[in-house]
């Protein structure tokens, strides 16, 4: 927004016709033309009033659109707080008109929020465009106290104030909500897998949300506002070339179809780049590559001043990327656990059962072109048939707004889906775990919101509404596929030694799990219906009290099953059953001796003897041969695990409240103080975790309850060139929901490798607390320069959590959990900040020189959900830099962009034997235009 003050001033000496040093370059050309027009006016003294009126109209017309949602384009010039243009008539023309003084002050987006009584950080789309910042993970680093976990976008978690760790698309709602153009996403994976362009603003609101509409969230909310259609013709495009064969094309175009009635806007991008590491085994694949395409088409209909309708359609076809969680290098496992034995000495690690020990077996040593030290531990990717992760999404939104009787009625109808299929699979060149593997998601959501808002300016401003949200995940899989080398890898030491002793045993070992394919499938269906209201009481011009309440009826249902999808080559080695799933195998003990079997089962046992030993029947086998059969069956049974038929989990049904109370006091036009209390509750979980003999085991999780307290101020100084927003906060969370690992005693017995086996699920941490200080600052008092700072100190800890699963280094004993009370939450840094400096200066007659520097810093944090001491990420800071020159009218601009200017190394260990490298420096060139 730009405010312009036009007034007639007393007659003064002529001033130079060059613009003021503090003139905002966006308005420079328009204001210069206005001044030249004014200098050419020849009017008499008696026409003073008429000409002043015309000048005011002319100045207003020269401004860019400022209404909410109006079409804008990237501004290559930083907003300045005080811009002045003086225009006067020629000195040869005596007149009483004197000078016309125009003062333009661009209001920063942060300043627009000065009366909002809560912690909000905001970044303008123009700032993101200057460094071609489009990736969601990178965008959120531009504000303080917000981060995304380091994994693939589908499984990534958004965290605010150190809280919010989740796990992919599933039963768990994100603690940090995400809204794009007023539409809430039920999973942040949708936003994390697309690039955001044509952005008007990006902001983060902290604390429980929901009393003003949309989907409720318990920790905070991220809002992305894109540019809407308008009736002013507009077109912009850019092309970026860079290292790693990067090419990024994006364009936005729009304008009137029918003046005053129908407008449109189209947005498109294509982003393609190779990853930083090439797979030595197949150089067609590189790791952390980019493959993203996106298109959005919007139409705006305005049949009257009181009725507007907007339709938005968007589509992201399936892209194919090998994302961050697959870019890792393996390390040798340490020789000792941190655990101690009865004599007080560290427990030794059985290296024969670590990855290096398993790959060192004779079976794998047959491959002479692959070695453990040179390849597996060699800081390179050398893996068999590694498929990519695949992401895609599409959706549509219909917004209808009607103003009547001093109110506005708004309807937002939206549909969105998300597709994900994981590549997963091999860790080496051997056919052990086959790709594609691990995960598959087909997600869809529908939402409908009706909101009634009063006209502002009275004693009470209010809004109220109804909200319906429904999401379904009919296909959510966790899978495992095994290959011809899997038996030799997963057998324990004794099993392997006996099976590898001769050809018969090797045949059994090969077939034991070759082509075996198991699948855990979830069918998830959730419905939320809410009513909400939010009121602002203006008791005086200075004192305003905001109150809000919301009630959300949550209904959540999950059905799960775990079955064998493909028996592979060794179906005859199945057990008779696994829990309530019949598998058709025969019964035998750990030595291979037959126990109770039917005639059909005995016939199957005889066929095993004939197939693998060419014996007449099972009774003809030697004890050693029977032991080999038992070993092969044990290897297979451990990979099959606990199966169960389709089981309905206990449903979660409850009405959850959200509330806010926020008094604010405006000391004067420059200073506002506020207090905020926010209460939010996130729905519990309907889920199956593990199984019993009767089938899947239901494990209902409780709702997460958040109470947040905040005191802050928002102030402007130095003639409004400096704006500061700061707050201190305390957040208490009961029954904090997060991914957990639960001891699986049955699987521990099946594995028989001396390690505790776990199954994953979602659970409640009794108590968590987060407290800290947040600061947002913008300053534009230096010529041609704008500075923005966003930072926070944060202390987020487990107050009460006595059952956190052991990290790997705490193995070697029979204790599965440890007390994590008092420890800092995973992924949480104590201090983080982002500093952005933007400099734009006119050069020559028609050009702008511009440069932009962004520095983001974080102190150390632990990246492991179990808080492994090996997984501490050291403090680091990353500098991004851009420099360029362009025409002042935006017809051409060229910039050199450098990401990670100083090639900072921020690599880390994800656990005690896995290393994750950082992204190296990247250099590119961007050329852009605006018509």
In short, what is this structure?
The protein is mostly beta strands.
CATH superfamily of the largest domain: TonB-dependent receptor, beta-barrel domain
Tell me, briefly, the overall form: globular
Mean pLDDT: 87
Unreliable residue runs: 1-103
**SSE-based structural type:** mainly beta
User: Structurally, how many domains make up the residues?
Assistant: 4
Distance between the termini: 21 Å
The CATH topology assignment of the largest domain is Maltoporin, Chain A
Number of helices: 14
Just give the CATH class of the largest domain. Answer: Mainly Beta
Classify the helix fraction into a percent range: 10-25%
Query: How is the quaternary structure best described?
Result: single chain
Query: What's the Cα radius of gyration?
Result: 32 Å
The CATH architecture name of the largest domain reads: Beta Barrel
Strand segment count: 48
Largest β-sheet summary: 22 strands, antiparallel, barrel
User: In what range is the share of β-strand residues?
Assistant: over 45%
């Amino acid at each position: 927004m730009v405010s312009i003050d036009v007034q007639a001033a007393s007659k003064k000496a002529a001033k130079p016709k060059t613009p003021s040093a503090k003139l905002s370059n966006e308005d420079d050309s328009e204001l210069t033309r206005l001044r030249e027009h004014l200098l050419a006016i020849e009017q008499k003294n008696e026409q003073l009033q008429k000409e002043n009126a015309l000048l005011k109209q002319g100045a207003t017309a020269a401004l860019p659109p400022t209404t909410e949602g109006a079409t804008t384009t990237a501004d290559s010039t930083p907003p300045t707080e005080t811009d002045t243009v003086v225009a006067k008539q020629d000195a040869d023309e005596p007149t009483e008109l004197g000078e016309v003084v125009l003062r333009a002050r661009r209001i920063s987006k942060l300043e627009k929020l000065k009366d909002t009584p809560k912690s909000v950080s905001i970044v303008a789309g123009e700032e993101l465009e200057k460094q071609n910042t489009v990736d969601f993970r990178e965008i959120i680093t531009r504000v303080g106290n917000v981060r995304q976990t380091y994994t693939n976008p589908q499984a990534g978690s958004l965290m605010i104030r150190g809280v919010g760790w989740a796990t992919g698309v599933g039963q768990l709602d994100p603690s940090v909500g995400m809204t794009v153009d007023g539409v809430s996403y039920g999973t942040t994976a949708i936003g994390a897998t697309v690039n955001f362009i044509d952005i008007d603003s990006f902001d983060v609101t902290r604390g429980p949300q929901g009393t003003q509409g949309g989907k409720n969230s318990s920790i905070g909310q991220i809002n992305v506002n894109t540019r809407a259609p308008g009736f002013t013709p507009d077109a912009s495009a850019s092309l970026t070339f860079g290292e790693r064969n990067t090419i990024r094309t994006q364009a936005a175009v729009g304008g009137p179809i029918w003046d005053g009635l129908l407008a449109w806007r189209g947005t498109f991008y294509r982003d393609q780049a190779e990853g930083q590491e090439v797979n030595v085994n197949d150089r067609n694949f590189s790791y952390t590559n980019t493959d993203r395409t996106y298109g959005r088409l919007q139409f705006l209909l305005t049949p009257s001043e009181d009725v507007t309708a907007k339709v938005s359609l968007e589509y992201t076809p399936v892209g194919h990327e090998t994302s961050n969680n697959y870019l890792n290098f393996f390390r040798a496992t340490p020789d000792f656990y941190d655990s101690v034995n009865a004599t007080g000495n560290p427990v030794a690690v059985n290296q024969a059962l670590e990855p290096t020990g398993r790959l060192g077996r004779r079976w794998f040593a047959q491959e002479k072109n692959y070695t453990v030290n040179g390849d597996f531990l060699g800081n390179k990717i050398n893996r068999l048939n590694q498929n990519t992760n695949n992401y895609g999404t599409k959706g549509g939104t219909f917004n209808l707004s009607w103003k009547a009787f001093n109110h506005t009625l708004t309807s937002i109808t939206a549909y969105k889906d998300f597709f994900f299929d994981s590549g997963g699979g091999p860790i080496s060149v051997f056919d052990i775990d086959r790709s594609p593997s691990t995960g598959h998601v087909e997600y869809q959501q529908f939402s409908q919101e009706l909101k009634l808002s009063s006209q502002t300016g009275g004693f009470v401003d209010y809004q109220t509404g109804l909200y319906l949200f429904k999401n379904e995940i009919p296909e959510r899989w966790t899978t495992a596929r095994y290959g011809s080398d899997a038996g030799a890898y997963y057998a324990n030491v004794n099993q392997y030694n006996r099976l590898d002793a001769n050809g018969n045993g090797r045949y059994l070992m090969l077939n034991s799990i070759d082509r075996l394919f198991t699948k855990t499938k979830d069918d998830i269906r959730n419905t939320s219906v809410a009513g909400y209201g939010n009121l602002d009481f203006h008791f005086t011009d200075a004192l305003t009290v905001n109150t809000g309440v919301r009630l959300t009826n949550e209904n959540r249902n999950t059905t799960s099953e775990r079955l064998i999808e493909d028996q592979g080559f060794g179906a005859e080695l199945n057990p008779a059953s696994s829990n309530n799933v019949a598998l058709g195998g025969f019964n035998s003990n750990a030595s291979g001796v037959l126990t109770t079997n039917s005639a059909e089962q005995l016939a199957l046992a005889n066929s095993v003897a004939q197939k693998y030993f060419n014996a007449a029947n099972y009774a003809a086998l030697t004890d050693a041969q029977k032991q080999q059969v038992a070993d092969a069956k044990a290897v297979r049974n451990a990979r099959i695990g606990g199966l169960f038929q389709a089981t309905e989990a206990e449903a979660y049904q409850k009405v959850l409240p959200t509330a806010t109370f926020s008094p604010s006091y405006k000391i004067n036009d420059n200073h506002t103080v506020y207090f905020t209390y926010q209460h939010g509750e996130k729905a519990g979980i309907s889920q199956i975790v593990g199984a019993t003999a009767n089938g899947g085991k239901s494990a209902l999780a409780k709702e997460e309850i958040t109470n947040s307290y905040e005191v802050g101020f928002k102030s402007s100084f130095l003639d409004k060139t400096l704006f500061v927003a700061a707050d201190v906060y305390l957040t208490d969370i009961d029954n904090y929901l997060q991914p957990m690992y639960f001891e699986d005693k049955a699987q521990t017995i099946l594995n028989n490798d001396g390690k505790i086996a776990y199954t994953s699920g979602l659970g409640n941490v009794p108590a968590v607390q987060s407290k800290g200080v947040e600061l947002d600052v913008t300053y534009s008092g230096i010529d041609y320069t704008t500075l923005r700072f966003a930072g926070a100190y944060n202390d987020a800890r487990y107050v009460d959590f006595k059952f956190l699963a052991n990290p790997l280094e705490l193995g070697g004993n029979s204790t599965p959990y440890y007390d994590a009370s008092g420890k800092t939450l995973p992924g949480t840094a104590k201090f983080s900040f982002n500093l952005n400096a933007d400099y734009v200066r006119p050069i020559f007659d028609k050009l702008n020189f511009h440069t932009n520097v962004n520095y983001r810093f974080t102190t150390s944090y632990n990246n492991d959900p179990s808080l492994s001491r090996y997984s501490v990420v050291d403090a680091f800071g990353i500098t991004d830099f851009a420099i360029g020159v362009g025409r002042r009218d935006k017809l051409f601009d060229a910039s050199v962009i450098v990401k990670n200017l100083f090639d900072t190394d921020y690599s880390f260990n994800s656990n005690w034997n896995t290393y994750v490298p950082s992204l190296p420096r990247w250099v590119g060139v961007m050329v852009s235009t605006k018509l």
